[in-house]
Design brief:
Elements lengths: L6 H8 L1 H10 L9 H7 L4 H16 L9 H7 L4 H29 L5 H26 L14 H8 L2 H10 L7 H6 L3 H12 L7 H20 L3 H5 L2 H19 L2 H6 L1 H7 L5 H14 L1 H11 L1 H26 L1 E2 L12 E2 L4 H20 L1 H11 L3 H32 L3 H20 L11 H5 L14 H11 L4 E4 L2 E4 L1
Antiparallel strand pairs: 1-2, 3-4
Helix pairs in contact: 1-6, 1-7, 2-6, 2-7, 4-6, 4-22, 5-6, 5-8, 6-7, 6-21, 6-22, 7-8, 7-17, 7-18, 7-21, 11-12, 12-25, 14-21, 14-22, 14-23, 16-17, 17-20, 19-20, 19-21, 19-23, 20-21
Length: 500
């Protein structure tokens, strides 16, 4: 069967799994303001809306229990009541959960160290594109039968956006047949001939004797040998102190990527804009989704230049400041909801007839999204996928991703109630979360740019504090140079390469 060996093409296609994630994330935001949705399901904020939105994230948490990318969408589209809608979103979430956990691992194992951050960031870019495309499908569908304010609007206003998710899922399922296995996975299965052949096709233009190919092979072999000598099972290895600290770190980073407040901006941007006194809700919110896509591009291009640690530090600090500004503006210029408009009963605090303040809040929300898109969005996926040994990488990343979805689910459920109960104070809560994230990153996150996956042991076991940085250069570069100069020679012997 024909297979693709361009790293960029492979990782771009695999990132379509992130696109499914994005489609699911915004599958609610654009329909919340339509009469078709609110009248058909009789939902107006609060715990019930939180449960419907959070069902998808809850299903994603248990995504390892599912294997379908297609059947999951049908139940949402055909929903004739809240029960079937929630069930459909749970099943949909399972498929998205599988993809969101496995795609970054595959991308990291396929890519060379020089562009690993870039290609893993394609996962986040695909997520943002999925969010944007789904939102504009919803925006266009909202004009069915005269627009979102028509009390007799057809249910096609929400069925079309939900049903169209079937197509990218089908494309991903078919297309994955044409990409190679990860060479590190093949090595872990003792399929060494296949592993060296994939490495050669990926990084040596098919030349098995290429110094870069032989250097990577030797690093993988040494790492596999060490892991097998230790002899721990994958789950036991995860609980060892030297690995547990990394597990806690990646779980925390994924947790902070949700608790930073981006969840509010994606799921409930319509509520935020309503509270700010914005009238053209769907159009104003759509600008935010465009910015989310556009500002992810600089991260893809430069994450391997400026590094992971600076991205996380700058992002946490900037998002904290922006959230505090929004809280201050709403606290000073907002008033309790007078309850004169039934469509705003799900919000307890409003900015009324104050366009400058409304515009300032919208600007802060845009800047917040831009900051997340450049920093935490791509970096949180990249970091988790690169710091673990091959034998436990998939399981460790699954735990980290489960943390993402667990907090995603909790916030999706809680935020509508927070809009009602604590209104502007909610932004202070998320600002404090960003302060905590900044502190943890400063103390524990080590820089990984320019290092191979097999060098992460040196990075994390060096004994240097995280804020002191790591040594420059890569062991792989030195080994590749030695092979090219003839100082180190390798030859094919049976099923293995041996040093002469």
């Amino acid at each position: 069967m024909y297979q693709i060996y361009s790293v960029y093409a492979i990782c771009t296609f695999a990132a379509m799994g992130g696109g499914l994630f994005g489609f699911d994330i915004s599958s609610m935001s654009g329909v919340l303001a339509t009469s078709a949705y609110t009248n058909y399901f009789n939902v107006n904020g609060g715990y019930l809306q939180g449960a419907i939105t959070g069902a998808m994230a809850g299903g994603s948490f248990f995504g390892t229990l599912a294997s379908s990318f297609i059947a999951d969408k049908i139940f949402q589209t055909a929903a004739n009541g809240i029960a079937l809608l929630v069930f459909g979103r749970v099943i949909a979430g399972m498929g998205a959960g599988i993809a969101s956990a496995m795609v970054p691992v595959y991308q990291a194992e396929i890519a060379p160290k020089e562009i690993r951050g870039r290609v893993v960031s394609l996962q986040q870019f695909a997520i943002t594109v999925g969010i944007l495309v789904q939102y504009f499908i919803q925006y266009g569908s909202s004009f069915i039968d005269g627009g979102p304010k028509n009390p007799n609007q057809s249910t096609l206003a929400f069925r079309i956006p939900w049903g169209i998710q079937i197509f990218p899922a089908t494309l991903l399922a078919v297309g994955m047949c044409f990409v190679p296995y990860s060479p590190r996975w093949l090595a872990g299965q003792d399929r060494w001939e296949e592993a060296i052949r994939v490495l050669a096709n990926l990084h040596g233009n098919g030349d098995i004797g290429h110094p870069k190919v032989l250097a990577q092979y030797r690093e993988i072999e040494e790492a596999m040998t060490f892991e097998r000598e230790v002899g721990d099972s994958a789950f036991k290895a995860l609980t060892q102190p030297r690995m547990m600290s990394r597990v806690i770190l990646t779980v925390s980073i994924q947790m902070w990527s949700q608790l930073c407040g981006m969840n509010v901006m994606m799921y409930y941007i319509v509520y935020m804009m309503q509270a700010a006194g914005v009238h053209n809700l769907l159009l104003t919110a759509s600008i935010q989704y465009i910015l989310n896509v556009a500002l992810t591009l600089p991260a893809i291009l430069f994450i391997d230049t400026w590094g992971r640690r600076p991205s996380l530090l700058y992002g946490a600090f900037s998002m904290m400041v922006l959230l505090f500004v929004v809280a201050i503006l709403e606290a000073i210029y907002g008033v309790p909801n007078p309850r004169t408009d039934p469509s705003l009963n799900h919000i307890s605090w409003l900015i009324i007839d104050n366009p400058p303040v409304s515009r300032a809040i919208v600007a802060c929300s845009y800047l917040f999204v831009c900051t997340f898109a450049v920093t935490w969005g791509p970096t949180s996926w990249t970091y988790a996928s690169e710091i673990f040994p091959t034998g436990i990488r998939a399981k460790a990343v699954s735990l980290a991703t489960a943390s993402n979805w667990a907090w995603n689910c909790a916030l999706a459920f809680a935020v509508p109630t927070l809009f009602q109960k604590i209104n502007w104070r909610m932004y202070i809560v998320f600002g404090v979360f960003n302060l905590c994230a900044f502190a943890q990153v400063w103390l524990t996150v080590r820089e990984t740019k320019g290092k191979t996956l097999e060098e992460m042991e040196e990075v994390f076991e060096s004994g240097r504090p995280a804020w002191r940085g790591v040594s420059r250069g890569s062991r792989l570069d030195r080994l590749q140079r030695d092979i090219a100069e003839g100082t180190v020679k390798v030859r094919l012997s049976g099923r293995r390469y041996q040093e002469l």
